[in-house]
Amino acid sequence: MLFGQSAVLSGPSQYLGTSMRLGIETAFHEANQKGGVHGRYLSLESMDDSYETEYAVHATTHLIEKAQVFALIGAVGTPTSWGALPIAQAGGVPFIAPFTGAEFLRDPSLNNVINLRASYYQESERIIDHLTGEDGTNRIGVFYQNDSFGAAGLQGVRRALEQRGMEIFDTWQYERNAGGVDDAASEIIAAKPDAVVMFGTPEAVANLVKLVRKEADPRFATVSFAGGKTVANKLGENRKDIYVTQVVPFYDDLQLPVVASYNAALRAYNPSASPDFVSLEGYLAGRLAIWLLDACGPDLTRRCFVEPALSHNEIVLDGLILEYGVGDNQGLDQVYLTVLDENGQYRQIGD
Fold it and tell me: Does residue 170 register a pLDDT over 80?
């Protein structure tokens, strides 16, 4: 049985796509070693969309029309998912666990989308709750990628602040895949915000922090799209005290059965790979697809495959509970606030 993935597999953001692919393949390998699902062996065909909308459209079209995949899984990014979704809808193809918290994918009218992770609105809320509550920060600005991803993040922060009777202090932007954040950094230094919430790729986030910290020291926070080993490595000596939201449990929390399963499956599939948040999310995406295939039974259809997550249903993956319902196509709502230390390790803040 063939699944398809359009994701960024080259360029500065390739870590996100390759790690999602690794996690999905790890879950599929684990299932295949046990005989597959109802005798069906699972495989994944991944295509590089370079984190560009037009390439994602091409890749998605190829996967559906030429490769004839059963479902799409693990797409990476908001602008690429925006381009791919209409093609999947037109073909009646399930669109499973995209690596994005964009609100348009949570539209209750969608009948082919199954989200795994919390939304950017929820991640923004957790950041603003901490900054305005525990930190007492008031002048909060937003640095964002000038596309649908950045717009989703900007709206999430605006909404969270408005609920507290506050407004965004200022905004700064950069262009996707262009890499240059120098102008934004100069403007932030001049504006002197108390905190900057960032919605960008790991490279853009790291470059901005490095430039700003040469002359100023606002608090910095970013969401899971940039949070992982790559951003920690790119930040280098500037990584300390960067807040990052995560949408899956800690990848080394072996007391959680699904995390223990992930670590064991990763060692079996690729002993040289190191566990991280992104490949764990990919693994959970793969496990979700496997659960849905198993629930559907031998007489598999695409409608049967997506139905449990489009109606009221609780899906349990080794102790991790995904809750879906009518009008709710998102399984996880948890957002974990973490902070980077000087050694590049993530430490959780609060419960």
Answer: yes
Instruction: Tell me: pLDDT of 178 over 90.
Output: no
Q: What is the residue whose two structure tokens read 């990919």?
A: 282
Return the structure tokens found at 140: 């909060």
Overall average pLDDT of the 18-45 stretch = 97
- For residues 289 and 267, give the distance between their C-alpha atoms in angstroms, rounded to a whole number: 21
Taking a C-beta distance cutoff of 8 angstroms, is the pair 239, 344 a contact?
yes
Task: Name the residue type at position 201.
Answer: T
- What amino acid is encoded at 86 in this protein? P
What tokens appear for 38 in the block? 């109802």
Strand stretches in the chain, DSSP E: 2-7, 43-48, 71-73, 95-96, 113-114, 140-145, 171-174, 195-199, 219-222, 242-246, 313-317, 320-324, 336-340, 346-349
Please answer whether residues 76 and 105 qualify as being in contact, where contact means their C-beta atoms are separated by less than 8 angstroms: no
Residue 117, pLDDT score: 97
Burial per residue of 197-236, b for 16 or more beta-carbon CB atoms within 10 angstroms, e otherwise: bbbbbbbbbbbbbbbbbeeeebbbbbbbbbbbbbbbebbe
Task: Report how far residue 144's alpha carbon sits from residue 196's, in angstroms, rounded to the nearest whole number.
Answer: 10
Radius of gyration for the alpha carbons in the chain, expressed in angstroms and rounded: 20
In angstroms, the Cα distances linking 136 to 72, 131, 213 are 43, 6, 21
Separation CA 51–CA 322 (nearest Å): 28
Percent of the chain with pLDDT over 70: 99
Q: What 3-state DSSP class applies to 175?
A: coil
pLDDT reported for residue 179: 64
Q: At a CB cut-off of 8 Å and minimum separation 6, what does 146 contact?
A: 173, 174, 175, 176
